[in-house]
Design goal:
Elements: E1 19-27, E2 37-45, H1 51-62, E3 81-84, E4 87-90, E5 105-108, E6 115-117, E7 120-121, H2 124-132, H3 152-156, H4 175-179, H5 186-196, H6 204-211, H7 225-229, H8 236-249
Parallel strand pairs: 1-5
Antiparallel strand pairs: 1-2, 3-4, 3-5, 6-7
Helix pairs in contact: 2-5, 5-6, 5-8
The structure holds iron/sulfur cluster and FE2/S2 (inorganic) cluster.
Length: 252
């Protein structure tokens, strides 16, 4: 494809913070072609801006057909996970200056999921696995008249896994998931962990049985890709190991 060049920014050459950066983006439009292909866009951008800002510049000023998801732009909604320079990251949390802007910055959709258009993948199987582990508090008995109390120690037990923003960076970096999309994947296990180890919840056994399935937690090969990929710093592999241990000991 041709290389569009954007150079509309007025700059005072000496003081300008702008540099020229090439974004090499994996593009796919099922209405036009069966094959994805790379397209280069060269723009002027402040290296202190984020990859998401670069994608916005391209979409708004060069090619409005460029398609990607984003919402909060501040690392909270989890909608802009993508493969940037070969690594899963949130575009809104990745500064241009931190990823060697002297070379083309590659941007691709996350792996292991069907690409719908450009950087947008079908997240439905991912969210189905999430729903399957019952990611909500299950209790029996009458509604309490006040909050359900929990000690600081009991809360600490699952604090790490409450931080998940369902971005899928972990699941889509997992080689087991690449080979077999039936695997529940790290994110679903992280969200099961969040409730299994919650002292107020009563469905831990049920969730463990769901993850005892052939596509469940035993498929994990402890490659640590998930932990490396998580933009929230969650110790994903550790959480998976704790769920495995709970399955063996039935103590949680
Ligand atoms: S565990 Fe981390 S990488 Fe995985 S979905 Fe949650 S926030 Fe994203
Ligand atoms: S746009 Fe919400 S996490 Fe990046």
């Amino acid at each position: 494809m041709a290389t569009p060049v954007l150079d509309k920014v007025e700059k005072d050459s000496a003081a300008s913070p702008y540099i020229t950066v090439t974004f090499r983006i994996r593009r796919f439009n099922p209405e036009v072609t069966d094959e994805a292909q790379w397209q280069d866009f060269t723009i002027e951008i402040d290296p202190k801006e984020r990859v998401l800002d670069g994608l916005h510049k391209i979409k708004w000023d060069v090619d409005g057909s460029l398609t990607f998801r984003r919402s909060c732009a501040h690392g909270i909604c989890g909608s802009d996970a993508m493969r940037i320079n070969g690594k899963n990251r949130l575009a809104c949390k990745t500064l241009i200056k931190d990823i060697n802007p002297e070379k083309p910055i590659t941007v691709e959709p996350i792996k292991g999921m069907t690409v719908l258009k450009d950087l947008v993948v079908d997240m439905e199987p991912f969210f189905q696995a999430y729903r399957d582990v019952m990611p909500f508090l299950v209790t029996s008995g009458n509604e309490p008249t006040r909050e359900r109390l929990q000690s600081a120690e009991d809360r600490e037990r699952f604090d790490d896994t409450t931080k998940c923003i369902l971005c899928a960076a972990c699941t889509s970096s997992c080689p087991v998931f690449w080979n077999d999309g039936q695997y529940f994947g790290p994110a679903a296990i992280v969200n099961a962990h969040r409730f299994i180890f919650d002292s107020r919840d009563e469905a831990g056994e049920q969730r463990l049985e769901i993850l005892n399935d052939k596509d469940g937690v035993w498929r994990c090969r402890t490659t640590f890709n998930c932990t490396d990929a998580c933009p929230r710093g969650i110790e994903v592999t550790k959480a998976i190991a704790e769920v495995k241990r709970a399955l063996i000991t039935r103590r949680f």
